[in-house]
Amino acid sequence: MPYLKLAFKNILRHKTRSLLAFLGIATSVALIFSIISFNKGFERGISRELDATGLHFMVVSSGCPHEVASLVLHAAVVPKFLDVEVIDKLKDFNGIDLISPILITQLPNPNKGRIDIIYGMDMQHIPKLKPSWQINGNLPSNDYEVIVGFEIADHDKLKIGDIIKYPDYPKNFRVSGIIQKTGGQDDAYIFMPLNAIQEILNKPQGVTAIGVKISRPEELSRITEEISMKVPGIQIVTMGQVLNSLANLAASAKTLSLSIAMVAIIVSAVGVMNLILMAIFERTQEIGMMRAVGASRYDIFKIIMNETIIITVSGGIAGIIFAVVASGIIENFVKLFIPYVPSGRMLLFEPLIAVFCLLFALSIGILSGSYPAWKASTISPIEAIRG
Amino acid sequence: MIELKDIEKIYLRGSERVYALRGISFSVMPGDFISITGPSGSGKTTLLHLIGCLDKPTKGTIKIDGVEVGNMKESDLLMIRRQKIGFVFQQFYLIPRLSVLENVMLPLIFAGKKKGLDKITSIIETVGLKDRIYHNPNQLSGGEMQRVAVARALINDPDILLADEPTGNLDTENSEKIFELLMSLNSKGLTVIMVTHNSELAGRAKSIIRLKDGGIQ
Asked: How many other C-beta atoms are found inside a 10 Å radius of the C-beta of residue A74?
């Protein structure tokens, strides 16, 4: 019968108390696992969505890079338009593979009871900017055809050839293609030829941003520096900067959540320590007996430490399992506190994070068990037996 | 062989010095069965703890098999307890969730020894509990629990069995059974030192040490 088994049986002597301590640790570890996993999933999601834009940087009118982040990923309407001459100026720079003007807007669609996000761009650029797209049907062949994202098509039961109408605009749009599921924001957009959306907005030359793809990504800083110096009134935001801006938005939420989790962990650890101290107090005579029949101080220390570690590590494992099983609910809850969340699952099982959380639970066990174990090991057998 | 010479044990109660034992000298030969008796507070248990290497005397010497143990360090006393001494207590002190077998095995684990199941079983059989081997303490009577405690004391093959009021919590019938068990173990060569209030049982030991106010009467 090893020490672990002895410790385990001791824990079962106080089922309710042990269960409460176990639940405290499980909840705290679930919280920490969820926060770290979510944060990692968040960064991965943003990175994936930025990759999906197929662009290296964007040129926008001077302003806040957060606006650009929203523009690119959240389809927010930015009430600023770029000077169209910028496009011609960009053409003069070496190393640029593609210049793609973008105009994003939101159009009320009362027939469906929602606001559609319209992403206007040059449809000829799609093969280069969105090489991963699988399109059922064709790219628009004229200004009154659109392609729609998977979610829109699925929700509206749209088929190729169907008509989309907007009340304030006299012309209809025919669906020429449906994009297969991408798992990103593209699933929720309607992609329209740039001219059409300019006409709808009555901004014949208006663009909110110019997406740029370069031939050699390693020349990114050289090209952006040159453009910044030579073209006035613009701001260049690389996808890396967008990533950082969005990651910073999430960081404050992460810090707050982790602080709350740390408080929960400390409370749980104190709970475990209290449980073990009470158990030792109740078992003083038994510990005295063990010393009398041959247990060393270290043996007693080990037994008590094992009890603490069993509670905290099993609590940690249960917490991780709970976090994974209930990830959908936890994810939706955490999303409430973060201003922008990329599409797709954020909270996935990450073995490394699980290992970290288990080591964390183990450390809590060692920290909260050390004092009670030391105290138990110093109990005088004579005093203990005397009672 | 156990030899005690001029043993004195003083406890400090605040600034007051309380003599638990004074001027105790006697020897215990291998195979002896000694009962220590006397009124409450006479120092019986303190004396047993000194012989059992759980405590150290304030003055005097205690030798076990010729080795002075009175001034040994804690780790050496622990080795003597593991190798030479078995303890039986009035309250049994069995661990509730462990079976009879697991309770009996406890000293083996602490001593880092391995013993086959058949050997452990045979010791449990010696105390008459073979059919109770997988029972938990709450399924046993008081007499049976004390027999488990005796088996636990025997598991490391000690030379000396120290029993502190082993029948103190038992009825007459079970007291008699436990005493007979101790007698039977003694007849096989085990040295038994028993602290008891029961003068009838004390009188049946090979020799009696009567204590009063910390000294031998």
From this structure: 16
Q: How many Cα atoms within 13 Å fall on the side-chain side of residue A261?
A: 21
Q: With CB atoms and an 8 Å threshold, state whether A9 touches B97.
A: yes
CB A266 within 8 A of CB A124: no
Among B75, B91, B96, select the one facing A285 at the smallest CB separation.
B91
Alpha carbon B12 to its chain's center = 26
CB A139 within 8 A of CB A191: no
Find chain B residues with C-beta within 8 A of A1's C-beta. 98, 102, 105, 109
What percentage of chain A carries pLDDT values higher than 70? 91
In degrees, rounded to 5, the angle at the alpha carbon of residue A27 between the alpha carbons of residues A26 and A31 is 115
- Enter the ipTM: 0.89
Average pLDDT, chain A: 84
A132-141 pLDDT, tens digit each? 888 999 999 8
Q: Do A289 and B45 touch (CB under 8 A)?
A: no
CB contact under 8 A, A292 and B111: no
Chain B residues in contact with A299 by the CB 8 A cut-off are: 110
Q: Determine the residue of chain A that is closest to B158 in CA distance.
A: A293
Residues of chain A in contact with residue B96, where contact means CB-CB under 8 angstroms, are 13
- Top-confidence residue, A199 or A313: A313
Tell me, yes or no, if B152 comes closer than 8 A to chain A by beta carbon: yes
Q: Which of B45, B89, B105 sits opposite A289 (nearest CB)?
A: B89
How many other C-beta atoms lie within 10 A of the C-beta of residue A25? 28
Query: Mean per-residue pLDDT for A57-69?
Result: 71
Task: Check A9 against B109: CB less than 8 A apart.
Answer: no
Looking at the predicted structure, is the pLDDT value of residue B153 above 90? yes
Model confidence over A1-57: pLDDT tens digits? 678 888 888 888 888 989 999 999 999 999 889 888 888 888 777 777 777 777 788
Residues in CB range of A56: below 8 A, 6 or more apart = A212, A213, A214, A217, A220, A238, A239
B111/chain A closest Cα distance in angstroms: 6
Residues of A in contact with B82 (CB under 8 A): 294
Instruction: Give the DSSP letter string of A15-58.
Output: HHHHHHHHHHHHHHHHHHHHHHHHHHHHHHHHHHHHHHHT-SEE
Between A280 and A248, the higher pLDDT residue = A280
Alpha helices by DSSP H, listed for A283-326, are 284-292, 297-325
Kindly report the pTM of this predicted structure: 0.72
| DSSP letters spanning B10-65 | EEEETTEEEEEEEEEEEEE-TT-EEEEE-STTSSHHHHHHHHTTSS--SEEEEEET
Q: Testing the interface with A: which of B109, B161, B164 to mutate, by most A Cβ within 10 A?
A: B109
Residue reference for tokens 């120092």: B43
**pLDDT per residue as tens digits for the range B184-210:** 999 999 999 999 988 899 999 999 999
What separation in angstroms does the CA of B62 have from each of A48, B1, B6, B29?
Answer: 79, 10, 9, 14
